[in-house]
Amino acid sequence: MPVNPASPYALKSVRDRWAPSPAGLPPKADEASQKAGPLPAGHQEVKIKIAGMHFHYGATQALFNINLAVPTNHVTAFIGPSGCGKSTLLRCLNRLNDLIEGTRVEGRVELDGMNLYDPQVDVTDLRKRVGMVFQKSNPFPKSIYDNVAYGPRMQGVRGTGVLDRLVEESLKGASLWEEVKDRLHHSATGLSGGQQQRLCIARALAVQPEVILMDEPCSALDPIATGRIEELIFSLKTRYTVVIVTHNMQQAARVSDRCGFFLMGELVEYGDTQTIFTNPRDKRTEDYITGRFG
Amino acid sequence: MTRAPLKAFWKSGELFVWLTASGVALSLLMIGALLGLIMVKGLGQFWPADILEIRLADGRTLIGQPINSETIPHSTSQAHPDGKRRTRFRVGNQDAFGYDFKWVDADAVVAQAKPFDLTVFNRREWGPLYGRVRALYREAAPVAEGPAAWPALLPLIEQANRLHERIHRIEHDEIGEINRRLESLRLQRQALRLDNRLTDDETTTDLGLQQTMAGLEEEYQRQAATLDSLRRQAGAYEVAVSLSTGQEVRLPLSKVITALRPNEMDWSLKTLTYLGNLWEFLSGEPREANTEGGIFPTIFGTVMMVLIMTVAVMPFGVMAALYLREYARQGPLVQLVRIAVNNLAGVPSIVFGVFGLGFFVYTVGGTVDALFFPEALPNPTYGTGGILWASLTLALLTVPVVIVATEEGLSSVPRDFREGSIALGATKLETIRHVVLPCALPGILTGLILAMARAAGEVAPLMLTGVVKLAPDLPVDGQFPFLHLDRKFMHLGFHIYDVGFQSPNVEAAKPMVYMTTLTLIAVVVLLNLVAVMIRNHLRKRYAASAV
Ligand SMILES: Nc1ncnc2c1ncn2[C@@H]1O[C@H](COP(=O)(O)OP(=O)(O)O)[C@@H](O)[C@H]1O
Ligand SMILES: [Mg+2]
Q: How far is Cα B376 from Cα B409, in angstroms, rounded to an integer?
């Protein structure tokens, strides 16, 4: 996939991103912004910007005129009743909806100013920058090690040394390392539900993404496992931009910095989580978070 | 009063359980009975049964092994309320008597005994010979007579067998090699003349070839002389045997494979002989229009054909299924293709045979010959039936099975896995290669198992595309290029038909039919077991994820 380095859509070469660096993990993608000097307090750099976006599944429209900006290194939560289009929007951010036949997108979805739906965009490269964790944990029926090493291997990373380090870092990043370090080559299907979900997070981290999308990552987990994942999400935002879909409002309140409330395919309200939960502007938002909805 | 319990019984579903269970029991019973019948009828033939000497009421004697006995039809009378019995004996000596088997009525027997010196000779031609050893001759001069002849005979038979082996090797390997080289030289000379003129260069080459041929001719003469002397040596010894009729025959030892005296063999020796015979059957080459000897070439041909078929059908079927399931746009057209593929599985196999003959043998084979073997024409090389064309025809026959099973396997791979892989930045091809195919592998192998079972048991299409009654060479041997895909081959299924219905001595061939059938079943089961084992191993590795 030749990428013209002069083009605004040029993505950093995969191998460059994995050039061994003494600091262990390769430099982060948002390093450039840090180099530009400390940001003024209160300023939030925009990672993802959605403007005037409509989404259609064939004849049925699922999203109507969405406008929102996801800030870098923050956790953004999408809440709303089931069927309101949260997953659909999330799956637009890594263009996973492309897999479904007959889908159509209008408007702009930008990652670092680059329109994701531009025909010149290399979709696989985009998905390397925007990782995803699914509602139902879906580790491949391979060993724990092979699960984590899957993404890097697909990008041509070879050499046990590099892979070993990457797997270890990723599992540590997903706070799973201590539990599985002695059975890396056992099947991933032997892990508990919560461990499997953290493995999926580690698998996503191993690709060195800039953004991590999570679609109701705790909906199938018990409260303790949920707690661990929430802690993890909180720690992830120092390195990554996280977008999480949840139908659990307490969870949104606990982990997110920004929050968007969706209803029937429309973004009703979007703002600081604090504001949304304490002082919603819209009546429907208030009804929903106070449990008076429908 | 009686209605209530009946109703309760009906409602409890017990009846249904009984019905389904009896279905299973019936199937098992049928399979068991089939296998039992085949085994009983087939495995018995290698047992060195005792030889009986029988005096009949009319004064004749008879020497032979009892095969089976039955009640004579319509023979019930006052004296015999259950009917009279009769027994069939194998009396052998077909060349002397004109028959191999004989029915003997039970009430015609005056006396019967098992003298220890009754001997059965297994011969290379004409089947077994029963009688008593009288004397041993070398070049018509007696060397041992009476009781001394038997101990002297056994080492001589062994020696004769070794000689036979050597003669066979020279005929087959050495002279065969000379013939093949001569033929190849002839073809090279033919190739030089294909354009109907010889350039100067070509004339020199041609002369060189001619000289090599002359050298080979000489070599051939030398080998032929060796053969002649070996043959004379082998024919030197003869054993004189007196038959049941009192008549004496001279049997050259070169024609004898074994001489046994079952009546003086003990149980362990008989078992040993039995196992030896069984091994000979499995590893030997057929004799006497396939009614005697072994069936090794047919086992080899069957397995080989199935393997080539597998190699051909797997990539083809899996590719087709991958396209249909993963790439093609699902719609009426794809559905139509699917229906067509499914119906292909129901087409009678002989139709595939005709197609294989017309397409592979005549069209493809003919083209290959015209392009690569023009010097051999009009003798076909690939333009005639062969193991490759037979295998490809069967691959065509079984490809629907593989496609259907693979599609099923592919569709059972959870969407989560695909999305998980795609979301990690894998391309569709990588996802298929690293996630979808490994997960679908057990399903694909199930298809393969079904295809193999179908292919191993198919005979009709093979008869048109390359199976023969007797193939002189195996499709794999020590000659370059080792794998000879153009060769005709033997097949267990066709062998059953050939031995059972095309042989001159049907009665003698019967046990061979059962044994060959048993072997065919065993080969199919074995091939399947291997595939099932591989599949189970993989299934354990790729066990679907359980949350
Ligand atoms: N593959 C699809 N094809 C057609 N409609 C879909 C598909 N997936 C989702 N939808 C519809 O789009 C709407 C939004 O779905 P979704 O984004 O999954 O909601 P949420 O995640 O908020 O529960 C729903 O009305 C749903 O029926
Ligand atoms: Mg959803």
A: 47
